[in-house]
Design goal:
eight-stranded mixed beta sheet, nine-stranded antiparallel beta sheet, alpha+beta
C-alpha cells in the first residue's frame, strides 16, 4: 500500500534504517560512520537535479538515500563502515550502479557519476510513463486507477474549481489546520469524488498529542510537547469529506474556474507526485483506489506541509491504520535530512477517551490463510506462481494491496473462476506497490483464491562461489500489506533449482527431493502450523546434522563450501573455511534449545536449521530456518586476521547463534502485535541468550559481564546515537520509531538490551533463594507461551501474565497489579542510581541504601547480596521510593561476610551502583 512504502522510506531516506533489522531475529553491529558525496551529471556534463541516489550496504543490506540538489550534488551521511552498492536513478536516464564503494569511519568517499540517456524498452510487462501519466498493467488497466494516475498531467487540471478561504479551520483528530487566507485549488473529480488539492497562502498547524509519552516524543523535535507551525502551502490528498467540508464552509468562497495561481498549484502538485513516485516510492493513487471502491469507508487525509520552520512535514490520518505505526491511525513525520523520522504517532483521540486504544486493533483488509507457491530459482532470478487463499475482513472490499519486492514483476493475476484480474504495479524504480482489483465486492462470508504469476531478478544477490543472499526475506512472495511484519498462514512451497546448489526452506520436507536432468525439485510444507513468514536459503552448502532426542529437534548445519568473492581476494586472511565450525555450531544450538525448552516449553517444529549467509555481521531467524552471519562460522584466529583484535573477540560472535535460536520462541511461536510490542521479540531473545551464557559457562562472572555489557549499551552515549544516552530518548514501546535524524540508530541500543532487562528483572524478583529457584519464573514463561501459542501479543498481554504469577513481594501497591513496574521500566524512561555503604564488625552487618536520579513516585525492589567466600548469596531485598535512603540495622550473621553488594547479578538496571565498605 502506498503509505506503507512512504513511511518505510522516510526512515530509510535519512536515518539509514537497517531494513532487515526491522524483522524479528536480526542483530546488527554499529560503528561511528562515514559518508559518501558527489555530483551527478548528464552526457554533456550538465548537472542532474532530483536524481535519486541509493546506497546499500553489501553485507547488511542497510539502505540510505539522498536526492541531488540544484547543483547536482548529493551527500549520504552516518553510514557504518563497509562496502556499499551505489545506485543512481533519474527520469529519462539509464540507471547507473557502482558495485563496491568503500566507506570508512570518519571519512568522506567521493563518487561522481555521469548518467546516459535511457533507451526505450517496450518489451516488458509494464509500460512506465512519466510522472502524471497512466501505466497499463497485466494487459488490463483499471479505468479509475488510470484517471487517478493521470491527474495533473494536463495544463488545465487545476484551472477548475477553487476556493478562496478566510480563517477556514480543518480539524483532523489532534491536528488543527487554520487557513487564514489564500486559495485551495482542486483536481477534477474521479469516480465522482474530489481527492486532492493544493492550498497556497497563509496558514498554521497546531497539534498536541493526546497522550503524555507522545508529547515527549514530539518535544524531541520541536522543543515543546506540541507543535505550532506556520506554512505557506499544503498539498492535500484525501478520500474523506475534505472537499465537501471546504465547499460548504462559510469561510470559503467557491469559484468554478480562473484562479490566479492555478499554474503554481499544478507545479506544487507535480513536485509532490515526483517526491512520492521517484523518491519516497509511495503509490497514493493505489491507496486512494482502495477507498473509491468502498465508498462506505470514512476515508484518509494526508497533508504535505510546506512550513516555515519545518518544510518537509507530513501529517497523516488513516482509519485503516498507518502500516509503519499500525494499528495507530495518526502520524506526524518528516523526511528532512536532519529531523527525519516519526515525530509523533497515536491512536484516534476518541479511542483514548473511551479507553479503547490498543495495539491489538486489527485494521487488515483481508487475512491470508494459505500460500501455495511454486518457484523456479536460477541464479539471481525467481519465477513463481502463488495461489493465495484469503478471507475478506471488511465489507465492500475490491482492492487488495500486497507487499511484493519491487523487482519482482507481476505478469498475470486470475481468480478461482479463471478470470484475469486487473492489477497495479508501477516500475521497479518508482512507486512499485502491488495491488489487485476485483471486479465486484468480495463476499466476507467466504474464502477466495487468486493466482499471482510473477518473476524478476535482483531479489537474490550472487556473492560468488555458490554464495547467494535472498534480499526480500518476507516479500519474495505476495504478503499482506496491512501488517507490520507478516500474516500467519499455512505454506506449501515447491522449489525447482539447479542440481549444483542446495535449497533449504522453512517448515519440513514433504518428501524426498527429486531430480530431472539438471533440475532438482523439493517440496516443503508448514503442515498444520501457521507461520508468520516463509523463506529459503540457497547455495552450495556442506551439511551436517544431529537428532537431539532429548530436546526433540533435528539440528541441521549448513555452511558454504567456498567463501564469497569479497573475502576470497583479501590478502590478509589467507585461506579460510566456514565448514569446520559445524560441531561447535550444532553443540551451541543443542544447548540453547534444551535450555529454552526447560524455560519456555517445547516448540511445535521438528527441526532447527542453522544456515550460513554471505552477510558477515548479522543473523536472522525464520521459523525452523536461521540465517547465520558468515563470520560467526570462523574461529577466533580466522576472525583476528579479518577484523583485528577488537572485532575478533566481540561476544556477538559467541552469542548470535543462541539469540537467533531463541527467536523460534520469541518472534515466531509468540509474535508481536505492533511496533510498540516488538521489543518483546528482540528483548526476550537477548534475555534467553543470558540463560545460555549462565548455564553453558557455569561461570557467574560471565553472566554478570553479559548484563554489564547490556547496561552499558543502554546508558552510554555514542556517535551512533548522536551523542544521546539511549534510555533518555523514549520508552521501549516507541520501538524503531526511536531512530530519527535527531537520534541516529538509537533503537538498537534500547530494544535489545533494555528489552532483555525487563524479563531479567522479573526473573530476579521471582527467584526463590531457599527452595524453588527459577520455578515460579519458568511456570510464568511457559504459561505465556501456552496462552498465546502461535499468536501475536501485546505488551499488555505480558503484563497480565506477570500479574497472574506475581509473588507477594512484587505487590508493592497491594493491589495485585504490576502497574508500578511497567509504568517505570516499559512505558517510562527513568533509570535510577544506587549507593550502598555498609559496615562489617565481626559477624555483625549494617548499612545504608540510597536511590537517586528518579521522580518522587519511582519504586523498586532492590536485592542485597553477601559473599561468604563462595560466591554471592541473596540476603533479601528492600523497597525504595523516590530519591530516598533506607537504613539496614545491625544484623547478626552465622559468620562474617567478606563483602556485600546491591543487585550483584545486575538484578536492577541502574545508571550506577556504588558499593562501599566503611
Amino acid at each position: 500500500m502506498s503509505h506503507h512504502k512512504f513511511l518505510a522510506l522516510v526512515g530509510l531516506l535519512l536515518t539509514a534504517f537497517v531494513n532487515l533489522s526491522l524483522l524479528p531475529g536480526s542483530v546488527t553491529t554499529a560503528a561511528a560512520g562515514g559518508e559518501i558525496a558527489g555530483v551527478i551529471t548528464d552526457p554533456k556534463g550538465a548537472v542532474v537535479v532530483g536524481a535519486s541516489v541509493t546506497v546499500t550496504n553489501t553485507t547488511t543490506n542497510q539502505i540510505a538515500s539522498a536526492v541531488t540538489d540544484g547543483q547536482g550534488r548529493y551527500k549520504v551521511q552516518s553510514l557504518p563502515a563497509g562496502l556499499y552498492r551505489v545506485r543512481v536513478a533519474a527520469p529519462g536516464f539509464a540507471e547507473q550502479t557502482r558495485a563496491e564503494v568503500k566507506i570508512e569511519d570518519g571519512k568522506t568517499a567521493s563518487l561522481d557519476l555521469r548518467l546516459e540517456v535511457a533507451a526505450i524498452d517496450a518489451g516488458g510487462v509494464t509500460v512506465t510513463a512519466a510522472p502524471g501519466t497512466a501505466a497499463v498493467k497485466g494487459g488490463k488497466g483499471d479505468e479509475v486507477y488510470q484517471q487517478l494516475r493521470a491527474q495533473a498531467a494536463g495544463q488545465g487540471d487545476f484551472a477548475g474549481p477553487y476556493a478562496s478561504v478566510n480563517n477556514l479551520v480543518l480539524r483532523r483528530d489532534a491536528a488543527t489546520f487554520t487557513l487564514r487566507s489564500g486559495e485551495i485549488y482542486f483536481l477534477p473529480p474521479v469516480a465522482g469524488r474530489t481527492t486532492a488539492g493544493v492550498f497556497i497562502g497563509d496558514g498554521e498547524l497546531q497539534m498536541t498529542p493526546p497522550v503524555d509519552h507522545e508529547k515527549r516524543s514530539l518535544a524531541l523535535f520541536t522543543g515543546e510537547p506540541s507543535i505550532t507551525e506556520s506554512f505557506t502551502k499544503l498539498t492535500l490528498r484525501f478520500t474523506d469529506k475534505t472537499f465537501d467540508e471546504i465547499k460548504n464552509s462559510p469561510q470559503a468562497k467557491m469559484a468554478t474556474s480562473g484562479g490566479a495561481q492555478a499554474a503554481r498549484a499544478r507545479d506544487i502538485y507535480r513536485d509532490n507526485q515526483t517526491l512520492l513516485r521517484r523518491n519516497l516510492r509511495a503509490n497514493y493513487e493505489l491507496r486512494t483506489l482502495v477507498d473509491l471502491y468502498a465508498a462506505q469507508r470514512p476515508g484518509f487525509f494526508v497533508a504535505f506541509i510546506g512550513g516555515k520552520r519545518f518544510n518537509k512535514l507530513v501529517f497523516q490520518l488513516d482509519p485503516l491504520g498507518i502500516p509503519e505505526v499500525s494499528p495507530e491511525e495518526v502520524l506526524l513525520s518528516s523526511y528532512g535530512e536532519t529531523d527525519g523520522g516519526f515525530w509523533t504517532a497515536f491512536h484516534l483521540s476518541e479511542e483514548y477517551h473511551r479507553g479503547q486504544a490498543s495495539s491489538s486493533e486489527d485494521h487488515r483488509l483481508f487475512d491470508i490463510t494459505h500460500h501455495e507457491i511454486d518457484a523456479v530459482v536460477r541464479g539471481t532470478k525467481i519465477t513463481a506462481t502463488d495461489v493465495v487463499t484469503l478471507r475478506p475482513l471488511t465489507a465492500g472490499l475490491r482492492v487488495l494491496p500486497f507487499s511484493l519486492y519491487r523487482t519482482l514483476r507481476v505478469s498475470r493475476v486470475v481468480d478461482a473462476q479463471g478470470r484475469e484480474l486487473p492489477f497495479v504495479q508501477e516500475g521497479k524504480d518508482s512507486d512499485a506497490d502491488f495491488g489487485v482489483i476485483w471486479p465486484e465486492p468480495l463476499d466476507p462470508a467466504r474464502s477466495h483464491k487468486l493466482t499471482i504469476e510473477y518473476a524478476g531478478g535482483d531479489a537474490i544477490s550472487d556473492e560468488g562461489s555458490g554464495n547467494f543472499f535472498l534480499i526480500p526475506r518476507s516479500t519474495w512472495y505476495p504478503n499482506n500489506d496491512g501488517t507490520q511484519f507478516a500474516d500467519r498462514a499455512l505454506f506449501n512451497l515447491t522449489f525447482h533449482y539447479p542440481k549444483s546448489n542446495q535449497l533449504i526452506a522453512t517448515g519440513a520436507l514433504a518428501g524426498a527431493e527429486t531430480r530431472e536432468g539438471d533440475v532438482m525439485t523439493a517440496k516443503w510444507t508448514s503442515g498444520d502450523i501457521e507461520l508468520a513468514v516463509a523463506g529459503f536459503n540457497y547455495g552450495r552448502f556442506k551439511k551436517k546434522e544431529l537428532l537431539d532426542t532429548e530436546a526433540g529437534y533435528n539440528i541441521e548445519f549448513y555452511a558454504n563450501q567456498e567463501l564469497p568473492d569479497y573475502l576470497r581476494n583479501v590478502p590478509s586472511i589467507g585461506a579460510l573455511s566456514t565448514t569446520g565450525m559445524a560441531d561447535a555450531a550444532i553443540a551451541d544450538t543443542q544447548n540453547a534449545s534444551r535450555i529454552y525448552n526447560a524455560y519456555f516449553g517445547k516448540l511445535p517444529y521438528s527441526r532447527i536449521a542453522m544456515s550460513q549467509q554471505p552477510a558477515p555481521n548479522f543473523g536472522q531467524a525464520w521459523p525452523t530456518l536461521i540465517y547465520m552471519p558468515l563470520i560467526a562460522y570462523l574461529d577466533t584466529t580466522q576472525r583476528l586476521g579479518l577484523l583485528g583484535v577488537r572485532g575478533a573477540t566481540d561476544d556477538f560472535w559467541k552469542y548470535v547463534g543462541p539469540h537467533e535460536v531463541a527467536h523460534q520462541w520469541w518472534g515466531h511461536m509468540v509474535g508481536w502485535n505492533s511496533y510498540r510490542d516488538q521489543w518483546m521479540s528482540e528483548g526476550f531473545a537477548e534475555f534467553s541468550t543470558s540463560l545460555f551464557v549462565q548455564f553453558t559457562n557455569k561461570d557467574t562472572d560471565k553472566f554478570i559481564e553479559f548484563w554489564k555489557d547490556q547496561r552499558d549499551l543502554i546508558i552510554t552515549s555514542r556517535p551512533q546515537t548522536q551523542g544521546r544516552k539511549p534510555y533518555t530518548v523514549g520508552p521501549l514501546t516507541q520501538g524503531y520509531r526511536l531512530n530519527s535524524g535527531k537520534t541516529g540508530q538509537i533503537a538498537r541500543f534500547m530494544i535489545y538490551p533494555k528489552g532483555a532487562y525487563i524479563p531479567h528483572m522479573l526473573r530476579m524478583m521471582m527467584w526463590d533463594a531457599r527452595k524453588q529457584g527459577d520455578a515460579r519464573f519458568r511456570v510464568m514463561m511457559r504459561d505465556f507461551i501456552k496462552t498465546h501459542y502461535n499468536k501475536d501479543v501485546s505488551t499488555e498481554d505480558l503484563k497480565r501474565i506477570v500479574e497472574k504469577h506475581m509473588t507477594p513481594e512484587m505487590d508493592i501497591d497491594g493491589n495485585r497489579r504490576m502497574d508500578w513496574f511497567f509504568d517505570e521500566w516499559v512505558y517510562g524512561t527513568e533509570v535510577p542510581s544506587y549507593k550502598f555503604e555498609y559496615q562489617i564488625n565481626g559477624n555483625a552487618f549494617s548499612g545504608r541504601i540510597t536511590q537517586s536520579g528518579v521522580s518522587d513516585q519511582f519504586r523498586m525492589r532492590v536485592p542485597l547480596y553477601l559473599d561468604f567466600g563462595k560466591g554471592w548469596t541473596r540476603l533479601g531485598s528492600a523497597t525504595l521510593v523516590g530519591n530516598s535512603s533506607l537504613d539496614i540495622p545491625s544484623v547478626q550473621l552465622p559468620q562474617a561476610p567478606k563483602r556485600a553488594a546491591l543487585a550483584a547479578l545486575h538484578d536492577v538496571l541502574a545508571v550506577s551502583i556504588e558499593n562501599t565498605k566503611r
